[in-house]
Design brief:
Layout lengths: L2 H18 L1 H14 L1 E8 L6 H5 L6 E7 L9 H16 L3 E10 L15 H18 L7 E9 L4 E5 L6 E3 L8 H11 L5 H20 L2 H7 L8 E5 L21 E4 L6 H18 L8 E9 L8 H21 L3 H4 L3 E9 L5 E8 H14 L1
Parallel strand pairs: 1-2, 1-3, 3-4, 7-8, 7-9, 9-10
Antiparallel strand pairs: 4-5, 5-6, 10-11
Length: about 375
């Protein structure tokens, strides 16, 4: 019952080591200074959506990652909108442009392998992300010189990208242009995003070239072996700082854990409903045999602290991790999947250092033992 927990801990140890190395630090600085661009990514909590892996982007090249079911974020949310505005203003003050990726996902072969957060309706998922992109345009730079929001579809059968232009009906599908050169790609991107800064589109070209390479390297058969088309997650993470699960560094032992974790960022008014969706997915994984029950399931509550002026202190991160754990436990007790999941669950309360990505375990509890102890206490009283 500890395999999932141990795999999570080992992954973090390897990742933190690679992320903190001098080679990785200089590579991140070089990438950001070369293009003068910082990147933020909004995506679905689905563990099959692993943008960094399928674009070959190293850990730390993307500054911020936010995930929730169906990418259902809104800039009107006080906390989410504030973080995004602070991120963009901080970039401008330091002379950086801002690239905002907003993703949805779908399956070309079976709509029920698509996004559960939108009831497997790809058009609804696409429309939500397009509406969010429009919010970003209104809030920031409509001309795409200093700030550029881009809607990206991720087709999970082939792991290929669909880039939507400022007019969402105009697209660039990587699967159709697997051999296109950087020059040809950029020419098409200029048509999709008229007036956008060359530096911002150059980063998008890097994403596309990386996706081309991923598709060429992994045949359809190999992809099916590496990552099942259906859900197979065994971790539910609530909080911030979980990017490292889906990322890689130059360290050879630091392979990404794709299709491994459902990640909910608490930046929507209904984020507790998104947790309920995650419970259903995990229970379905057990029932369908997509994960081995002997491996166990981890409910991870995370607080992040770090160097940026809007990051919480470590003390604040500790409070957040504790609060999120209590949220998960309360929702779990009320969940219709409670009985199915209870025998397999371990609670991990952690804080994560943004500068090093190191995870520190604050508390660990086995769910079934916690529930039994509470029942005995009630009976004794």
């Amino acid at each position: 019952m500890t395999k999932t927990k141990n795999l999570l801990i080992k992954k973090n140890e390897n990742h933190s080591k690679g992320f903190s190395s001098a080679t990785a630090r200089y590579a991140r600085k070089f990438f950001k200074s070369e293009y003068g661009v910082r990147i933020s990514f909004d995506g679905c909590m689905d563990g099959r959506v692993y943008f960094s892996t399928i674009t070959g982007i190293q850990a730390g090249y993307i500054d911020e990652t936010f995930k929730v079911a169906g990418t259902k974020f809104e800039l009107g949310h006080p906390y989410f909108g504030q973080i995004k505005e602070q991120w963009c203003r901080g970039n401008i003050s330091q002379g950086f442009r801002s690239l905002q990726i907003i993703s949805y996902h779908f399956s070309a072969s079976d709509k029920h392998l698509g996004c559960k957060g939108h009831g497997y309706d790809t058009e609804k998922a696409r429309q939500w992300t397009c509406n969010l992109a429009e919010q970003y345009r209104i809030m920031h730079d409509t001309e795409g010189q200093r700030f550029l929001p881009i809607v990206v579809g991720i087709e999970t059968d082939s792991c290929s990208l669909v880039i939507h232009g400022k007019d969402p009906s105009q697209t660039f599908e990587v699967l159709k242009y697997q051999d296109a050169s950087a020059e040809d790609i950029k020419e098409q991107l200029f048509d999709l995003f008229p007036g956008a800064a060359d530096q911002l589109l150059s980063v998008v070209v890097e994403f596309i070239l990386g996706n081309q390479k991923y598709i060429h390297t992994h045949s359809q058969a190999v992809i099916k072996k590496l990552v099942t088309a259906d859900h197979a997650e065994r971790v539910l993470a609530l909080g911030r700082g979980i990017e490292w699960v889906f990322q890689t560094t130059d360290e050879q032992a630091d392979a990404p854990l794709n299709n491994f974790a459902l990640w909910v960022c608490p930046f929507t008014d209904d984020y507790k409903v998104h947790i309920d969706v995650a419970f259903d997915v995990l229970a379905g994984n057990i029932e369908k045999g997509n994960i081995d029950p002997e491996d166990g399931i981890v409910f991870l509550s995370s607080g992040m602290y770090g160097a940026k002026e809007w990051d919480p202190s470590k003390e604040h991160a500790l409070f957040k991790a504790d609060f999120f754990e209590r949220v998960i436990k309360d929702r779990f007790k009320e969940s219709k999947s409670f009985e199915k999941l209870l025998p397999y669950v371990t609670f991990l309360q952690v804080v994560i250092n943004r500068q090093t990505r190191e995870m520190e375990i604050i508390k660990e509890e086995i769910a079934k033992e916690v529930m039994v102890a509470k029942e005995q206490l009630v009976e004794a009283n």
